[in-house]
Amino acid sequence: MNTETRQTMTETAPTAARRAEEALRPPVDIFEDAEGITLEADMPGVSKDRLHVQVDANTLLIEGEVQIDLPEAAEALYADIRSTRYSRSFTLSNELETDKIDASLNDGVLRVHIPKHPEQRPRRIEVRAG
């Protein structure tokens, strides 16, 4: 294959702004109980080292990238499959303890648990007779 054909077949690298637009929004389930909230995001193919979970003020940001590795001696001339980027952000309530967030990744599902402040949790009130 000549150089001109190869240049025609390869795409130019997207800019950072364009990459942000190309990110997929992972589907997320959100559960709330007395202790806090739990988010479960489907991010198939994302490994732990390509996953980024961050809290900034009251915003939770989840980002991940699927890396498709080529065999060592191979060069991709054309591919329908590209690396996939996931990105999603959430605004968090002040009733949550953002410094105690727990996150785990298992079989492509990211699970993030954010506990409520103790004073925000329901508590049982004892009733005395008499």
TrEMBL record:
It comes from the Bacteria. Residues 1-23 are annotated as: Disordered. Signal peptide: none annotated. Residues 19-130 form the SHSP domain. It holds the Pfam family HSP20. Belongs to the small heat shock protein (HSP20) family. This is Heat-shock protein. It comes from Thiohalocapsa halophila.
